[in-house]
């Protein structure tokens, strides 16, 4: 497949660059299909949790959905990348999408037939997680074949918009549908929305990896890992992201913050969670100038340092509220401290925005600096990083919060993220001098 040529003029607006849509109708169809199907996927994620809790009344039972899927997702991330580098990527996505769609159909059938066997829910959601992991790694490897290199930052920003819409609209729709028409129709709506994913992929041409050998065994996995060892810029970008997600992901403390410090209970938890997604969405909407940033290694370090600063600011808000509680100023479960909630939300929105900016440059670096024949495998490893990092973060926050100082994990973790990201760019010359016009892995 012939790759489009670059001819984009310099932009003078901060609004997201829509040139990828104009220059590549195939990319637009792929993006739109993923957006519509992703909304349905987020609906089902929420619906499954509510459904299992409705059956069992157990939060632990709900959490096992992620526990059972974690290891298969990691395997799928690594081996799915091998498949993307060995076969027609269009075919790989279609097969994986069909498996994900079939598991969604299975959930709908369970609901319509009122089958309450938990193992079936766990099995079907694990199949969905595995299939969507393969889809994610392969779709990311497809995008550079549809667009010229100068449009990859804009494509990543548009991907951020798509994800932001999915994680805001999907859960909201799930709540409304489950409450009004029940689990059966909620799953069925996702079954219908999923068809959009097929529409976006079916219209793609065949996309054979350039230089691919069609070897899909473990040797191909090791070949990908060996390449990563020879790719210091990609490797360091992964390491910075792991540190940021491990020490700067305070979502585990949100329920306690809503109950003990800021008040407001579940509503506060929802607002804090949404603030991060809103910040990420807004940063994508106003990402128009990012496509002309050449020193993307420095940009990654700066964005992650800003991310750590916002997380530390969130911890500082919690520290002030903790001191206020010690002085007798209390917040109740029902009534939130609105100024504190506003400040905490702004801090998390800033963290979401800066994290998304970092993600745009990291994704662009992978798509432009990694050879096409390795792109699926490196995207697969990146999927493992994105999947495992937040879970390591949950463990860190849980251990740090055991001190009963809820402000300590974000305040300390944010400081660690700032120092590490700045030091990484300072000490790693190759990343510091990375130039988008001359990408090197």
UniProtKB/TrEMBL annotation:
Among InterPro entries, the record links this protein to: MFS_dom, MFS_trans_sf, TM_effector
Compartments annotated for it: namely: Cell inner membrane
Domain Major facilitator superfamily (MFS) profile intervals: 189-441
**What is this protein identified as?**
Predicted arabinose efflux permease, MFS family
Query: Membrane topology per the record?
Result: Multi-pass membrane protein
Transmembrane regions: 30-53, 59-80, 92-112, 118-142, 154-179, 185-205, 238-261, 267-287, 299-320, 405-425
The protein's UniProt keywords, in alphabetical order, are:
Cell membrane, Membrane, Transmembrane, Transmembrane helix, Transport
Record's GO cellular component terms: plasma membrane
The source's superkingdom equals Bacteria
**Cross-referenced Gene3D superfamilies:** MFS general substrate transporter like domains (1.20.1250.20)
CDD domains, alphabetized: MFS_MefA_like
**One MF term in GO for this entry?**
transmembrane transporter activity
SUPFAM superfamilies recorded: MFS general substrate transporter
Which PROSITE patterns does the entry mention?
MFS
The keyword Ligase is assigned to this record: no
């Amino acid at each position: 497949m012939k790759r489009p040529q670059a001819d984009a003029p310099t932009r003078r607006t901060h609004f997201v660059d829509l040139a990828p849509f104009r220059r590549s109708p195939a990319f637009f169809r792929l993006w739109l299909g993923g957006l519509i199907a992703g909304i349905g996927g987020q609906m089902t994620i929420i619906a499954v949790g509510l459904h299992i809790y409705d059956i069992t009344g157990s939060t632990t039972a709900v959490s096992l959905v992620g526990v059972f899927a974690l290891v298969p997702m990691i395997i799928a991330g690594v081996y799915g990348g091998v498949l993307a580098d060995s076969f027609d990527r269009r075919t790989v996505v279609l097969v994986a999408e069909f498996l994900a769609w079939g598991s969604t159909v299975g959930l709908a059938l369970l609901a319509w037939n009122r089958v309450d066997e938990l193992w079936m829910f766990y099995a079907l959601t694990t199949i969905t997680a595995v299939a969507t992991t393969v889809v994610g790694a392969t779709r990311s490897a497809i995008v550079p074949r549809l667009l010229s290199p100068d449009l990859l930052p804009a494509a990543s920003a548009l991907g951020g918009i798509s994800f932001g819409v999915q994680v805001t609209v999907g859960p909201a729709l799930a709540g409304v549908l489950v409450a009004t028409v029940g689990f059966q129709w909620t799953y069925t709506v996702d079954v219908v929305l999923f068809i959009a994913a097929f529409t976006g992929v079916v219209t793609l041409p065949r996309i054979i990896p350039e230089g691919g050998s069609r070897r899909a065994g473990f040797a191909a996995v090791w070949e990908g890992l060996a390449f990563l060892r020879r790719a210091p810029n990609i490797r360091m970008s992964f390491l910075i992201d792991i540190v940021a997600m491990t020490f700067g992901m305070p979502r585990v403390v949100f329920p306690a913050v809503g109950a003990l410090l800021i008040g407001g209970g579940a509503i506060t938890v929802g607002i804090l969670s949404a603030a991060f997604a809103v910040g990420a969405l807004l940063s994508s909407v106003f990402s128009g100038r990012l496509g002309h940033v050449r020193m993307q290694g420095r940009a990654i370090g700066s964005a992650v340092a800003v991310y750590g600063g916002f997380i530390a600011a969130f911890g500082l808000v919690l520290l002030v509220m903790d001191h206020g509680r010690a002085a007798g100023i209390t917040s109740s479960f029902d009534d939130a401290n609105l100024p504190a909630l506003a400040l905490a939300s702004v801090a998390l929105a800033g963290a979401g925005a800066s994290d998304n900016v970092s993600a745009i440059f990291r994704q662009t670096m992978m798509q432009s600096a990694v050879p096409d024949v390795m792109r699926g495998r490196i995207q697969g490893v990146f999927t493992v990083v994105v999947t495992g990092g937040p879970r390591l973060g949950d463990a860190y926050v849980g251990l740090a919060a055991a001190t009963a100082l809820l402000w300590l994990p974000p305040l300390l973790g944010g400081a660690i993220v700032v120092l590490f990201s700045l030091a990484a760019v300072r000490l790693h010359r190759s990343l510091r001098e990375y130039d988008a016009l001359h990408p090197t892995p």
